[in-house]
Amino acid sequence: MSKEGVTPENLRQDPKETIFAKIIAGQIPCKKVYEDDHVFAFHDISPAAPVHILVLPKKPLGGIGEASDDDEQSLGRVMIAASKIAKQEGFADDGYRLVINQGKHGQQSVHYLHVHIIGGKQLSWPPGCQ
What we know:
Layout: H1 8-12, H2 19-24, E1 32-35, E2 39-43, E3 51-57, H3 72-89, E4 96-99, E5 115-119
Antiparallel strand pairs: 1-2, 2-3, 3-5, 4-5
C-alpha cells in the first residue's frame, strides 16, 4: 500500500524545487517550531500522532540515500535539532520516534531529506511492518 504523493515524479524532483524548499524560503506558510542557521522544523499537515514535526536541513538533499560524507555535519545538526525540539515542545521525557523515509518502498513523498518526530502517545512496534 502506498501513501498519497509517493510517485516516481515526486522522487525525481530537484530538492531545490520541492514544497519543503518553498516552505523553508517562506514562500509557503507553515506552523514553524524551530529554526536556526542550518535547520528548519514545522508541524506536519497530516499528523500520524498527536506530535508530528518535520525537521529538515536547510541545505537541500533529496534523501538519506543521496547523502555523502560532505553531509555529515548537516545530518548531525538535524538530529541535534530534533532533540532540542522534543525538549522545547515538552515531550522529550515521555519519548518519541525519529523516522526517515527513503524512496518508494520507504514511502518518501517529498524528495527532500526530512526527519519525522512522532510522539505524544504510546507508539507500537514494529512500525509499518505488515
